[in-house]
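Proteins fold reproducibly. Consider a sample protein:
=====
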Amino acid sequence: MNNPVEFSYIIDLDDLGKVARAYRLDADEDARARIAKRLKTPSLEKLEAEIKVRVSKTLIEVEGALVAALTRQCVASLELMTENIDEAFDIAFSRVRGDGAALEEDEFWDAPEIHESDQLDLGELLVQQLSLAMAAFPRKRDTPGLLETYAPRESASPFADLPGILGKTDDNQ
């Protein structure tokens, strides 16, 4: 069973020709709510992108920049916070090898991902880029960490107790 795509903007690659074409994407309120649910974040207030697509017989080049504003939960305080993202991206997809044969996925570990369809979903690509740009551990500015909050100051370092264990004092170090 296919899951519905949260934000879709499908382009036909055969219609592009060799000249790069620019697209402007702006997710509406319903799409942003679906994307926030997918990304497991309280809300997504803004998601916009400027994307250029260039296509050749063997390569699809996608470059762009996304701007987003999300509500996230701070990993230290658990308070809600705003995360603003302004990130450029550049992606290449391989269509076929020069002799017309499709590339094997493990043929080259650093080869571009293979794209076999004549269509490309820029909306889905944008959501994927957003997920990559999000902070892995969002943290509110100036929020003390768990160590500062709950650990006694004298044992904040694993080495803090060594002088006492070794019988060292300030006088005999």
Q: What stands out?
A: DSSP finds four helices and seven strands in the chain.
